Amino acid sequence: MHEFEDDASRREKCFTSLGQLPPFVDPKQPPTKKAPFSAILAHPFIHTVEVTLPKEAYSTIQSSLESRLQKLRYARVFMSLSSLLETEFFNTYIKTGNILMISEGRSGSDSVFTLRDGILKLELSREIYERTGLTGKPIRSGGRKHAKERYVIELNLRLPSMLHGKKGFKRIEWAFQNVLNQSVAWLFFDLSSDTNGIADADQTLKGNNPQILPCEPTLTEHPQVLVPPLDTLKITPTGLNPSGAAAATTTTTKTITDQEELRDQCTEISDWLAMVSLSSPRVTATDDIDPYLSRYSVPDADEAQATDLVSLRWRGLIPAKWIVGLVVHLLRETAAGGSAASSAWFALSANALAREAVEARDGYSLLVLPALTVPLGDPGQETVGKEAIVAARRSGRHFVSWEFVGASVVV
């Protein structure tokens, strides 16, 4: 076997979180500081979201997803930075509204801009930064050879001092009109709840000739995929608490062994989810490739069951708030109950539009385990089925999340 390692792969990291979701998640006020929701909200600019779940469960919740899930659309516009400060646009979208914007360009080499929560972030080369006359700070280069020093400027446009005619605001206007005066392509999303990304009667944005782009899901079927026994995944072994951190007890050999086993399990499941996403034939029940060509095997293949899976994929500018709503909706629809979706697991992966040259947040994956965990073949399954469903509802479901951090830009 050849080891394909380079400088980029050595910088890449994966942070794994294990835990238990609350029994009920309020769709109007979902958690923000606890995993996995904290990881979702930490990635504001997402370009691809994919959800994978059993086909039988999807057939049950399909109508609910189509009718209740917010439809997405975003715009592609050409604007200069000075256009953002024009009175109508500035007051409508930045001062009183809430929008998400990201410009074209590559972090680490081009001038790139983002607008989020009223904060305009400018990443510039040293030469352009010094010409603007604005105050910023240097950003890390990661020790890359021949990389020129770069700076970032953050402007909170919602501050009371950010008004036309103010001295500090005039400096920003001068820099945008005389230095950063080029027109660039932006992706635009209006976070107002009643716009679905772009308002129909949006006269303010229409002056910039927006190209409206719908964000419709594409369906991919994965027939006869070997699914490992996810309901037996041991995410709370001896010596670990539900969040995956070591408990305050004396470290023993058994505890270390459990930690290593848990880490191996999570890695194997992550690899398996990636193979399913790629529609790899290696995870199908009919795969008969010569082991000389591929030594991959599905985790716990002896206990894996052949199941038809489906994947829903959205591509575009997707805000974190919408993804949180998607997760909450899936949790509710696949909760323990009397439908065919009962006990269903689902996985969600998201790829980010990286805007940091070093240790950029590349995306994350989330696996929510089945809600009902009655062992197969249990002689008392018929009598305890209802009790197990009630217990599953009260205890909440377990999850595993992976957050990927790496060197997205290496030159």
TrEMBL record:
Full protein name: Uncharacterized protein
A Pfam family that the UniProt record links to this protein: Ribonuc_P_40
GO cellular component, one term: ribonuclease MRP complex
Entry's Gene Ontology molecular function annotations: ribonuclease MRP activity; ribonuclease P activity
Gene Ontology annotations of biological process type: endonucleolytic cleavage in ITS1 to separate SSU-rRNA from 5.8S rRNA and LSU-rRNA from tricistronic rRNA transcript (SSU-rRNA, 5.8S rRNA, LSU-rRNA); tRNA 5'-leader removal
Protein's organism: Aspergillus saccharolyticus JOP 1030-1
